Amino acid sequence: MSVMHVEVVSGEENIYSGEASFVVVPTVAGELGIFPRHEPIMSLVRPGALRLTVPNSQEEVLVAVSGGVLEVQPDKITVLADVAIRSAEMDAARAEEAKRAAENNLSQAKDGEVKAKAQAALAAAIAELKTLGYLRNRKK
């Protein structure tokens, strides 16, 4: 089985470092499926579920990403995420509350810095909710 090395890094920590045989990344142009030996590309990442198929594992590794940058090389994928949350750390109620708070802060923002922080928080909450939705649909 052909594999590639994958690094998913947020501004706070290294979220995933290991092998994968297939990766799906939510990009601004749509979901991008990547197999080993893919042509080199760079893309912006949009909020959503990053899915990794790990060799010799029955489960997909899921990471909610709020945005960032994707770099693909034939034997390595790097995702530099603004915010990334492992599926085991996700909580729907907390994400819904964070989304409501971010939307409220965004509607009341009077300066650029406050608005940017609210937009980042909203993107993180949306990414988490999209990933949880993917998990729910997959279990059906």
TrEMBL record:
Pfam families: ATP-synt_DE (PF00401), ATP-synt_DE_N (PF02823). Residues 89-132 form the ATP synthase epsilon subunit C-terminal domain. One of its GO terms (molecular function) is proton-transporting ATP synthase activity, rotational mechanism. Residues 85-112 form a coiled coil. GO terms for cellular component: plasma membrane; proton-transporting ATP synthase complex. The keyword Glycoprotein does not apply. Residues 4-84 form the ATP synthase F1 complex delta/epsilon subunit N-terminal domain. InterPro entries: ATP_F1_dsu/esu_C_sf, ATP_synth_F1_dsu/esu, ATP_synth_F1_dsu/esu_N, ATP_synth_F1_esu_C, ATPsynth_dsu/esu_N. It is a peripheral membrane protein. It is found in: Cell membrane. Keywords: ATP synthesis, Cell membrane, CF(1), Coiled coil, Hydrogen ion transport, Ion transport, Membrane, Transport. The keyword Translocase does not apply. F-type ATPases have 2 components, CF(1) - the catalytic core - and CF(0) - the membrane proton channel. CF(1) has five subunits: alpha(3), beta(3), gamma(1), delta(1), epsilon(1). CF(0) has three main subunits: a, b and c. Belongs to the ATPase epsilon chain family. Produces ATP from ADP in the presence of a proton gradient across the membrane. This is ATP synthase epsilon chain. It comes from Kingella negevensis.
